[in-house]
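User: Second chain of the day. Same drill as before.
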Amino acid sequence: MNRGDLVSVSQRHAAAEALVLQERFADLFTDDERETARRRLKERGYLPPCGG
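Assistant: Same format as last time:
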């Protein structure tokens, strides 16, 4: 695995975590899971839109 592969994996994880925070998927995840996704995205510098 090269650096480009790692970036791609990281981006996919961030995309999945961003989906967890979308209102339409709220019922599929616990509060703890959504908070974990929110924290991980914040650590990567991602700022969710208002209400996210």
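The CA atoms of residues 11 and 24 lie 21 Å apart.

User: Great, on to the next one.
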